[in-house]
Amino acid sequence: MIIYSKVTEIFCLVDEFCKEYSELVDKSIIGNKVKLPSIMSQSEIITLAIIFQLSGFRTFKHFYVSYVKSHMKNDFPNRVSYNRFTELM
Q1: Which domain holds residue 16?
Q2: Would the pTM of this model clear 0.85, i.e. be above it?
Q3: By C-alpha distance, which of 44, 51, 41, 70 is closest to 5?
Q4: Cα separation of 79 and 40, whole Å?
Q5: Measured between alpha carbons, how far is 63 from 52 in angstroms, rounded to an integer?
């Protein structure tokens, strides 16, 4: 199953990447930035997508609804509904 130390390690790596990437992209954006940021960060969204690939679940919906929402409450306190999560992805 999922090893929690790996979740933290994956999140840290993804978060570092997202920070560097957003700095690079922010320099080249033309127009207005998004005024209301999402409740979940890009790092959290990408981390959950990676964890799903390592989890062994067949569908992402089953993984998110049954595992993330119940077993990973402390790891991802700002979880959104499944429909909103797929929109953010």
Answers
A1: 4-23+39-88
A2: no
A3: 51
A4: 7
A5: 7
